[in-house]
């Protein structure tokens, strides 16, 4: 695989299917992808399967650094690129690439390598969490409640909105002629507050529109995601 500092790299196109056991805390899988990357369709297929699993919170972040090669990703955002760079810096790396999946904010794997993805998810699924997080839609917005152990490390409370699916016909660039259905496309990522575990978290966040909402509690870095939940 060829990589470059804050650039892009592509690998083999692979398909993947798996059945995951339901658990109390979902495993968060962030896919950094692009409509303009020839290696991303395989990862998008893997990700589409993950998005169906009840114990997975799958979030697709389309980056913008492939736009120069002939096709502007209709979901691409510099904010998503910056989040991927932040993960690289936290890991002591200067390299980003597509497709990449990051599992629970901790494990960075090639997004079109199904065995690596499955292995990372198995490890993270076994970690468990001592933070309880619940979400409730209310007339004034989204009620976020959480409790954690005494002395827990601070976490950032983040609200994510996403589009469940959209089909795109790519007319130019490396994937010209492909029609791809994308899933759980992140449209908004907002930091709401920092929480230290005491007192218990009880926050009402404004919530407009019908798109699903997810909340992540993540340590600084960005680091490990200690709890996550979503509502359709």
Automatic annotation (TrEMBL):
Pfam families: DUF1223. The keyword Manganese does not apply. It comes from Gemmobacter lanyuensis. The keyword Signal applies. This is DUF1223 domain-containing protein. Keywords: Signal. Residues 1-21 form the signal peptide.
């Amino acid at each position: 695989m060829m990589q470059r500092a804050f650039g892009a790299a592509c690998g083999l196109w692979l398909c993947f299917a798996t059945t995951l056991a339901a658990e109390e805390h979902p495993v968060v899988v962030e896919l950094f992808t692009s409509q303009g990357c020839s290696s991303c369709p395989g990862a998008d297929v893997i990700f589409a399967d993950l998005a169906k699993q009840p114990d997975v919170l799958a979030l697709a972040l389309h980056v913008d650094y492939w736009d120069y090669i002939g096709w502007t990703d209709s979901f691409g955002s510099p904010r998503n690129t910056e989040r991927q760079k932040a993960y690289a810096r936290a890991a002591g790396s200067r390299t980003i690439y597509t497709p990449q999946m990051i599992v629970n904010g901790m494990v960075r794997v090639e997004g079109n390598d199904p065995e690596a993805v499955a292995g990372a998810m198995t490890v993270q699924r076994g970690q468990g969490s001592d933070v309880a997080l619940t979400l409730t839609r209310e007339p004034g917005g989204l009620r976020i409640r959480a409790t954690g152990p005494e002395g827990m490390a601070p976490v950032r409370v983040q609200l994510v909105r996403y589009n469940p699916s959209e089909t795109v016909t790519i007319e130019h660039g490396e994937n010209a002629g492909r029609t791809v259905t994308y899933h759980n496309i992140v449209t908004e990522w907002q930091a709401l507050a920092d929480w230290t575990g005491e007192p218990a978290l009880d926050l009402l966040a404004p919530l407009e529109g019908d798109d699903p909402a997810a909340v992540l509690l993540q340590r600084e870095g960005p680091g490990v995601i200690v709890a996550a939940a979503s509502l359709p």
